[in-house]
Amino acid sequence: MHRKPRLLIVEDEPAIRTGLVDVFVFHGFEVDMAEDGKTGLHKAQSGKFDLILLDVMLPGMNGFDICAAVRAQDRDQPIIMLTARNTDEDIVQGLALGADDYVAKPFSVAQLVLRVQAVLRRSGFDAQQQAVIKLTGDVQIDTRNLSANVRGESVAFTRREMALLEYLYQHRDRPVPREELLHKIWGYARDLDIETRTVDIHMAKLRRKLECDPKQPQWLVTVRGGGYRLLTDAASP
Ligand code: CA
Predict the structure, then answer these.
(1) How far is the CA of 52 from the centre of ligand 1 (A)?
(2) Can you spell out the DSSP letters for 61-97?
(3) Cα–ligand 1 centroid distance for 122 (angstroms)
(4) Residue (of 82, 46, 236, 237) closest to 160 by Cα position
(5) Both ends of the chain: CA-CA distance in Å?
(6) Among 17, 84, 170, 190, which one has the highest count of C-beta atoms within 10 angstroms of its own C-beta?
(7) Residue 191 has what pLDDT?
(8) What per-residue confidence (pLDDT) applies to 8?
(9) Average pLDDT, stretch 89-102?
């Protein structure tokens, strides 16, 4: 089973919101929605969504402020702004705050679906990803629901943590260098001299969630001079 892209729609006009939900469900998305700015911000910051469609004029908090707040927390969260305000200044402001694209109302639904798919592709979303990763008999990771069953307990992950796990799983035949993870998961250019500590912090979180003893990892192992490697029943000696 392949996984569906997860979409959050933040839009206060009921007719538009309902219409968008129908269209994206029809196109194979898993859709959640919010009707006001505060709820939208809360859901947008959950780190669960592959893409956020964000209206600008919203009760409670406007879309530009939501976009900025989400970006402050996750610079790679894909966001498309929707707005009736169609002046160049708004477009510049939306993009400056980090939106990946900007669609003016009234929009063609077919166009919007194409724009959403284009941003998803650029963000590295891969529908061919496996839905369930089995680490060992008692750890099963459900990539679609960003959760895992770890020795009988349900554990939740952020989108980024799951992307890391999925990448390590796809390359489980070898250790993956930190620089490669920064490049593939965070989108940093390979030649930038970037703090690889970011990777280590995320890896520590994953170990706390998955390992019996995070200090003596069994599956998410560090390979001296090589980076990280995910061991599974199939790959371990
Ligand atoms: Ca609105």
Answers:
(1) 15
(2) S-HHHHHHHHHHH-TT--EEEEES---HHHHHHHHHT
(3) 27
(4) 46
(5) 28
(6) 17
(7) 56
(8) 97
(9) 78
So where are the chain's domains?
6-123, 132-230
Nearest Cα neighbor of 183 from 124, 95, 120, 118 is 124
Residue 18: both structure tokens together: 């309902």
Which residues fall inside 5 Å of ion ligand 1, going by CB? 12, 55, 57
Q: Rounded to the nearest whole angstrom, what is the distance from the C-alpha of residue 93 to the centroid of ligand 1?
A: 17
Q: What pLDDT is recorded for position 19?
A: 95
Q: Which of 129-133, 135-139, 141-145, 199-203 has the lowest mean pLDDT?
A: 129-133
Task: Give how far Cα 163 sits from Cα of 25, 96, 142, 150, Å.
Answer: 23, 26, 12, 18
- Confidence band of 145 (pLDDT split at 50, 70, 90): confident
Between the CA of 173 and the centroid of ligand 1 the distance, in Å, is 49
Residue with tokens 């019996």: 212
Q: Please tell me the predicted confidence (pLDDT) of residue 4.
A: 85
Tens digit of each residue's pLDDT (9 = 90 or more) over 199-227: 899 999 999 999 999 999 988 999 998 89
> What are 231's two structure tokens?
């061991």
**CATH architecture classification, 132-230:** Orthogonal Bundle (1.10)
Helix (H, G, I), strand (E, B) or coil at 26: helix
User: Residue 35 Cα, ligand 1 centroid: separation in angstroms?
Assistant: 9
Structure tokens at 143: 């990539």
- Radius of gyration from C-alpha coordinates of the chain: 19
Tens of pLDDT, residue by residue over 43-57, are 999 878 999 999 999
Superfamily of segment(s) 6-123: Response regulator (3.40.50.2300)
Does pTM top 0.70 for this prediction?
no
Token pair of 165 as six digits: 């796990």
